[in-house]
Amino acid sequence: MTARLPATASRTECPPTPAAPRSAPGQWARRGGLLCASVFLLLVGVAAAWPGLLSVHTPDVTDLSATLQGASPEHLLGTDRLGRDTLSRLIYGARISLLLGLTATGLGFLAGLVWGLTAGLSGRVVDEVAMRSADVFMSVPSMLMVLLVIAIFGAGERNAALAVAVGIAPGFARLVRGQTLVVKNTGYVAAAVSLGLPARAVILRHIVPNVLPPLFVYATMTLGQTIIVGASLSFLGLGPQPPTPEWGLMLAEARGYLQRAPLLGVYPGLAITLTVLSIATVGRALQLRFEGRDAR
Amino acid sequence: MSENGPAPLLTAKNLTVSFTTPRNEVVAAVRGIDLALGAGECLALVGESGSGKSATARAVLGLTGSRATVDAEELTFAGEQLLGLAERDWRRLRGARIGFVLQDALTSLDPLRRVGDEVAEPLVVHELGSRRDRDERVISLLQGVGIPDPRVRARQYPHELSGGLRQRALIASAIAASPSLVIADEPTTALDATVQRQVLDLLSDMRDAGTAILLISHDLSVVARLADRIAVMAAGLIVEQGTPDDILLRPAHPYTRELLAAVPTFGAPGRIFRAAADVDTSPRDSPTRLAAPSRADPSGPGRSHPIGRTILELDAVSKRFRSPDGTWRQAVDGVTFGLHAGEALGIVGESGSGKSTTAQIAMAMLAPDHGEVRLDGAAWSGLRERERQSERHRIQLISQDPLSAFDPRFTVERIIAEALGRPGRRGAIKARAEVTALLRRVGLDDDVLHRRGRELSGGQRQRVAIARAIAPRPEVLVCDEPVSALDVSVQARILALLAQLRHELGVALLLISHDLGVIHEVCDRVLVMKDGTIVEHGTVTEVLTAPRHPYTHSLLDSIASDRSPSPASANTDQHDPALTYPGGNQR
Amino acid sequence: MNERTLSPQARWWIRRGLLGIVVVWGAATVTFIGMQLLPGDKATLIAGGGSLGGATPEVLAAITREYGLDRPLIAQYGDFLARLIHGDLGTSYQRGAPVAELIWSQLGSTVVLALGAAVLGFVLAVVLATSTAARPRGRAVTSTVELVLLSTPSAWVGILALTVFSFELRIFPAIGNDGIASLVLPWVTLALPIAAALAQVMRDGLERALEQPFATTVLSRGATHGRLRWRHLARHSLIPVLTLSGWSLAELLGGVVIVETVFARAGIGQLLVTAVTSRDFPVVAGVVILSAVVFVVVNVIVDALYRVVDPRLRETTP
After folding, report:
1. What ipTM goes with this model?
2. Are B351 and B104 in contact (CB under 8 A)?
């Protein structure tokens, strides 16, 4: 502009300044938390993939002469009612607990994606039917839906994962559909249509890629919850069966020995909580990053 | 009463307001300004967004927030020192002696409370009158600000009132406790032109009744009607201060002149063209010097483009929508018009007049309930989408909000390459030369190539949107409120660009706006829409100078201001040439 | 809009009611389909349970006739719906008793547990949210606590509570249905995650309302921050709480299953777990249908509450 005006006045056509970040001390705490969460998740991941690397004992060797022991150099976290090493069982338990959550979330996510995209991109009748059926599924608390599926197909690891997937799919479907409708009505989809692009190109190039990212964040958050539901099913005896090392199952087994060996009930719960908390922390960081990118 | 009044009501000397960002950077919003406002006087603070005018207003109320630091040599209200006032003392002033009117947003009044309760709140807070007195006072206040059926309205909720009535209720609440100063921050910005005028009249009556007004606005034409004095703010400083006549007729500061020039109004037909042309050639705009469009002389040859065949034709088009309450609303009702090749046709109307729906129908993004749209004489609205796809490139849209019209994942390069029929990253690289050429054409440099929409300024975004729209070589450009989201100085340049492209590419423009000034700048013919029908049409000059329909009259009245300068004296030709922009000092 | 024909209100209620019936019908249909998916012969399943030895062909034939298992599926479906309308949820495979009776006998203790936990959770959330909204320090602490609570399985919370308060400190009984003392730990266990989630959305709601223009308007009238918070913002923060009510209900009903197992309390949850374990499908189906009814009723109430809290919703049809 002119030399007489202060410099900042000439910024009418300059890019807007980036959004202000959150407070600085909070950021340090958040970074520290994120680091701990990532390290812990890495550890759990290694335990799930190669439990032999971390564990000294095998998880299912019983020793009836050394049951319900406290911590010792030999058994760092003591032994359970059959004299099995608790630490080993925790390490080996990571695999099934994680797998249960991952499978369920993955299946539920895929089903919800197809369901929601179909509803969002089809005509009114299909949309109405798809969403009313989602309403029906969601009118039953997902825990009960899960139990219903298990009542049909029976207990066990695989059925538990399937049941949890059925429990979460309608929620995903609704979210996908909502997101699809939002994206479908954006100016950029209108612009793509008015350029004369065929429907397939509009959907694959503009709609799906913009529908997915917020869902990944949601899926991460859901993963934590499915791990909890999976562990709860095991706790109820409806998931994997003994003597499988699994955190929920260990919790249930500890239930009978709270007086004699109270710590036995602490470890598996702590493992579940820390895992879920770490996933939530990472999920939140993803979300902030995602929103931050969007808000700028 | 203002000129020789006693001690001023509000005095600020060297007032500064700065904000501490969360990163502990200090940003100065107001950088040392002097204000004096006498009782019963109206002082207007005018400037674009970010000029510090709102921070000034809030400083006078002590509502700048915890991150702000307010300092001044002197800041007094009615003799009372405001600096360092305790919160409790601020509360004594707020509402009781200084009233505050915000811009009407749906949520400027608490949406969950009744209008009457909102208006009465200052009385409740300051414990004025008994409960019954307050009820009566609320009714008379609502009546006083011109709200019909005040007893009914008082029991309604804010969302049940129109924007104009809500703004009046907001004013009623601000003056409930009879303050001697009212601060009005953009009080008319979200309102339609006719309503705008009524609200300004109301404020004017208040001033005449002795209430001092500190009026904040970005719009010189609004301020001119009301203010006794105008202070122009830019970047936290007052760059110029004076009577409306001084500011409007003899603006001393170039920034003021730019503001004036950029306001696409037509208070005096013929005046704006020159000013806009001036801005067009301003080097700050872009590397490409936009040639002053051929409109410098409105009666000259530039007015008469060679008009060709009818390229877009709407024939008795109607469309209705279902409202949330289940009733049907006729958005467009039997609209018929034709757009000739290479012509610029404007559609003007207030919000809800059906002009945007008309644009959507013309684009074949919406199917009309009745009637037909033809493109170049062939079926258009009647086609199936699959058949239409290959023709769609012939008619392109430029929308009000370009940001949402860009895929957030795409860079500018990919956005435009896609419009050139070269999708994907590889396509973008192959199309690089074409993309750059298009960007040049709309006045942008290569350095925007790899930015995404949100990393561009408002003006840049609209330029990219225009580049994308002209990429497939359309014959018609539908521009739906193309500049209403932009700052006024940017508006003029974007309009000039559109006019220039039309000239160079021979593309026909269908320009939709609520602002007759915008239409006037670009179009040859204009249609006036109201309630879904066309109430008047003709050449822009005809409609502006001799409107036939009463609605057009009211549109014109609400903009043309009795305080606006007379045509002759406003002409930029009369300015001292030394005050025009020094050329080429930016790039 | 302002027609005094009484119809919009009435129409709204009718529409809500119909939607609710559709949802319950849908849930019932899902359970019917589930029943068809059960592996194995149905008559054997029905005969199964109590009688250890395999049922004789005569018995199976009798069951087939009695339950109409030889009729076409669509007729069975019709029968199923007709019985449902009369409140007949079928007969338990395992116990031979009507499902409705089984559920009814367990309902009381579960309702007490769930309602108490809901109230406790709400109160906790109000306290947490209003005391920490827009206060960075308090907010950092409580939001961390909330995140931890939401990441903790109820089963573990229950077990920790038992370990500390029943076995170590011996304040509350470990198991059973006797009196208030036996309810305290289950209530808290069930309420904590709900309190955590509600507190989060309430605080968000408060803070969002605080950023709206009307907050400035209110302060510019000379109102105190306290008045702003309680007279204006509190109401705004109720809206997100209502939005979360469906989730809270699901969390309560799901949590009941876990909590009743951990604390060995009789109730719907225990009934359900036993039924699932023993593949007693009619009982499971009955509980599912009942929970759909509860969900629909609660949702209608919540929708009505929305319209009380937010006048903007009163004239629109959902």
Report:
1. 0.85
2. no
